[in-house]
User: Fold these one by one.
Assistant:
Number 1:
Amino acid sequence: MRAALLPRAAVRLTARAAFAATAAVALALGMAGSASAATATRTVTDGATYQLSVTAPGTAAAAGENVTVTGSGFNTAKGIYVGLCAVNGPQGADKPTPCLGGSDQAGTTGASHWINNTFGGTLPNTSRFGAGGTFSVTIHVKADLGGGQICGETVECAVVTRADHFNSANRKYDVHVPVTFNQ
């Protein structure tokens, strides 16, 4: 009786291993076909040296989707906005604008997020920096910025960080993660 069960157990074990391997390959292929993360970095000196890093999806659905954006190395004494904007030139050359959702002070579109250690968490779509100038936020992105500005057609777009309204002329905290949109 024990001998008869061994082959069946071996078959089950082999079937489970084959299923797990197939699932792993399918998962890997699925991940390769979906939005993959892209990272942009920048080193700035603003009293101290900051190693800025932002990671966001490199592709997104043209009709719109929510994406997670993470960052590290930011100066926690300087507030930033995270959003999808038209970009012109390298990081820090020109202010990224226009941005999806504009100034979403009511927090209704979810298209931008304000990170500020003084006011973060007191208003919709705001938060404070974590240790080491880190953040992880979710924003809504779509190809149509409004006003005839279409990412990939009339303007180049990126998920960006930029200095908040307390220091809006400061281009040191501009980090661009280029994004393309799938139709």
Note: The CA atoms of residues 65 and 140 lie 6 Å apart.
Number 2:
Amino acid sequence: MLSSPMSSSGGPTSEQSMVAAAAVPFDAILMAAGAGSRLGHRPKCLLQLDGVPLILRQISALKAAGVDHLVVVLGFYADEIAPWLGGTGVRVVQNPDPAQGQISSQRIGLQQLRGRSNAVLMALADQPMIDSPDLIDLIAGFAVRPADCLLMFPRVQGQPGNPVIFTPAVRDAVLSADQSIGCRQWRQANRASALPFDSDNTHYLIDIDTPEEIESFRRATGRSLSWPTDRKEG
């Protein structure tokens, strides 16, 4: 069982986490290729919290956490999402056939990082509450993992969450495997090498897939998610 660096009072110490996380150079893949089929076939990552699209909130959090190289994978609604990414400095790639599913988008993102020596953080663009301290805590946990741990995922109250972080060896193993293999399949096949980062931080569990979850989010947090009122032009 792993957790973030702890203070004597038992709570996470941000300074300790930042020092530990700084020892882990990392790249990131931000997944934003989904169809949003349960949300009226709309791009979930453009939902806005406090007036900022979720995808831009994630990009800001990743940059604040110290990401070296950030790849955003688009698929469905790429023409709607891409204009929002102008000026962010991220590398944008597109899955030409996103109907093949999330695994195909993961693999396209991983291919962009082939040959790099950094750890890889795989993030979802529809997690409204993830911020840079959450990422830093996870990376800090990864920094002090056992030597045989190749992948770490957050676990809150027994439930696995996101994002996940793994070594370049996992990236290479996934890419060298059959096209049906993604990060989840690798994790299921290599359970001894995939360890939880145990936390009580529910940010890792919250993502948005349905209108009901938008309403549940509002009731739980007192904050509202809304769609952009205008289409952004490239």
Note: The CA atoms of residues 176 and 189 lie 15 Å apart.
Number 3:
Amino acid sequence: MEKTAFVFAGGGSLGAIEVGMLRELVNWGVAPDLVIGASAGAINSAYFASNPHPEGISKLEGLWRSITRAEVLPWSWRSMLGMIIGNRGHLVESMALKRLLKRHLGDARVEDAALPLHIVATDMHSGAEVLLSSGNIVQAVLASAAIPGVFPPVEINGQKLIDGGVANNTPVSTAIRLGATRIIVLPAGFACAERRPPKGAIEHAFNALSLLVARQLVHDLERWGEHAHIAVVPPLCPLDVSPYDYSRCGELIDRAAAATLAWLRADGLSSRRVPGALEPHEHDAENPSCSADIGLPPAGAPHAHSHTHDHSTTHGGIH
């Protein structure tokens, strides 16, 4: 019996991209049996699992369109000095993010979500993956999004937890352990380096985490492709938005929705292709993009970029 999982990756403000993807997947009629998220993807997975319908997605979209950096990262020179002078291990407190999450998720519990929900965090001391499948939903999301050095760790059941992206950036392996036979990955992607080099310490940290997410995802697709049908919604490319910039979330949602619809119309769900945007790449006049922004070749056809892997001839279509 087929069991479909939606897997949401991390990526800071680029998590808005996943909302555009999600909207079109649901409108296409794709319905998951379970939802898994890490880091910024934990916010999307928690909200969607609690409200798995178009109205819920519309409200999630409204959240991302109105969000500001101050609601997530209330950074200031005072906070920087506090970290340096006060010997504090993190840049900002997570109270602003906690208020935002409580406003939208309330006091809900993970195990009470309408869809089975699993949130990935990392044990700060061992680096091991910690799967949160029960407990307060806001605390679980805060733990999964606790970027080391930026936010403080979150203590749950005696464990100090940090960003889920440290242990399992895009938890494909987790979905397989939970019995998924069909996995649809919603990746945030990352800014193309030659289009917009990161500026400042926080942007460098966010960009590094986004790159790590993308590299690990490619590795996981190669490792776990034999165990389930894994379809990756192509992230936006070219992309010149920092994972620290929350001013362009509406634009990212709109672009991702259009790109995802093009991918769906090109039978992307039946493909096992690794999107070129997840691999090291360059752009030129002949290849200005490597995502669904400019359409996709038919499933099974070679990708225009030599770095892209195509598993379709080995594994066939969806189970």
Note: The two ends are 9 Å apart (CA to CA).
Number 4:
Amino acid sequence: MGMQEESSDRVDARVGEGVALALQGGGAHGAYAWGVLDRLLEQGLRIDRISGVSSGALIGVMLAQGMARGGADGARAEMRRLWQRVGEVHRFSPFRASPLERWLWGWDIGSSLAWHGWETALRLFTPALLNPFGHNPLRSLIADLLDPAALADPRAPRLTIAATDVETGRAELFGNREITVETLLASTCLPFVFPAVRIGGRAYWDGGYAGNPPLAPLIDAPLPRELVLIRAQPARRAGVPTTPTEIINRLNEIACHNVLEAELAALPASIRVRSFAADAALTELPIVSRFTAEHAFLGELFAAGRAAAAGG
């Protein structure tokens, strides 16, 4: 189970109100966050504001528009719909494991011939050459699921998603009424797979590079009483990565973790922090498993997340 950490021993005269939710990105590992949230909503958690990047941005969108439509039950149904669709899209992925590969290597697609071929291609060609038309399987999925009217509904929590401006390195923030298919594609854009997403003449990559997730949008006035942080990346991994993809992914995890820890340390002392760590659920999984979105794998992560929330 994920460890639940709390910080409530600091002293600050400003007593906040409401609950803020911070959702990390982590590819398919975001299904762990889905499980945590599903259980927390079942327990009666009420959320006032949300910040998310990458897969956390997608979860945040479904959570917000689901709450506008049907409260906690609506949010749980919308998140389930998201991950069901993700699993359906993965059925056509070249990285989907065959029964033999699944038996040999479990969820480690890094041992498959398809993955080795992809790693070789990444070393030889740019994303623009590998994907000249910018095809992204998430585009049609997001277009089908996104409901701008629900996000703009007064009953929806305040939602902020982030993408990283390629030139400045800073997080570009998008609120409820600014969230579109393009901004979500920007927040989930992995630069070694997809060309940068252009919005308003600016180029953007995955929001996790500038903050995973940014906490500043959650702490403007009035301050929240509590911050619930759901991680989708392990803070620690045993062993040393050896392949180029594993090395890049681990560097990204370390960089994102350090940015987040700096923001947590700077939070106003009055905010109580509840953090659901993902180490127990994700540390033993290979880094490349974040690209595995088979229904069975997502179901395992969902169950692990629910167990972590139930034990917290």
Note: Residues 45 and 72 are 8 Å apart (CA to CA).
